[in-house]
Amino acid sequence: RGKFSSAQEHRITARFPFDRLLTRPLFDGFRSGEMTRLGDRVMPRWLEDAGHLIVEHLGDAAYDLAALAQACGVSPSHLSHSFIEGYGEAIASFRQRMRLVQAARLLRDQLGCPIHQVAHRCGYRNASSFSREFRHHFGLSPRRYRSATEAVEQR
């Protein structure tokens, strides 16, 4: 069990470009003084920093909107509105997506780490909610995802 035929592996890797997803930098823009370009958006440096702070504190439940806004030197309301304008998504959905991307990295890179520990390290309180959200986002359970990445890397 857990092994895939070459046809199944091909479908999985075609559907999930693991290397591109997991190695792409968070920000592909340029920096110029206090402004940053992210795709076709230009945003203040503090807003880019907010994205990095979210990623740095993914597993920290105490690092909420108020703490993030304080670290950026703006009000929570201003941060929320600016984040949606700058990133095209709400802080909560960005954080959730980054948690899942981090989990995918851990599942791929730390094969000896149990799935429940990966869930905990990415800020999930229990493995079942983590597995449900992971499956919803990637289309595979964490266990199947790990098996698929192992099979791809063994080639």
Account of the 3D structure:
The protein is mainly alpha-helical and 155 residues long. The protein has nine helices and three strands, in the order H-H-E-E-E-H-H-H-H-H-H-H. Strands 1-2-3 form a three-stranded antiparallel β-sheet. A hairpin with a 2-residue loop joins strand 2 (35-38) and strand 3. Helix 3 packs across helix 4. The longest helix is centred in the middle third of the chain and has 19 residues, at 91-109. It is elongated.
- Report the structural category: mainly alpha
Number of strands: 3
Series of H and E elements: HHEEEHHHHHHH
How do the strands line up in the largest sheet?
Answer: 1-2-3
Q: How widely separated are the two ends?
A: 19 Å
Helical percentage: 55-70%
Mean pLDDT: 79
Overall geometry: elongated
Q: Please report which band the strand proportion falls in: under 5%, 5-15%, 15-25%, 25-35%, 35-45% or over 45%.
A: 5-15%
Q: Sheet with the most strands?
A: 3 strands, antiparallel
Number of helices: 9
Task: Give the low-pLDDT segments.
Answer: 1-32
> What integer value in Å does the Rg equal?
17 Å
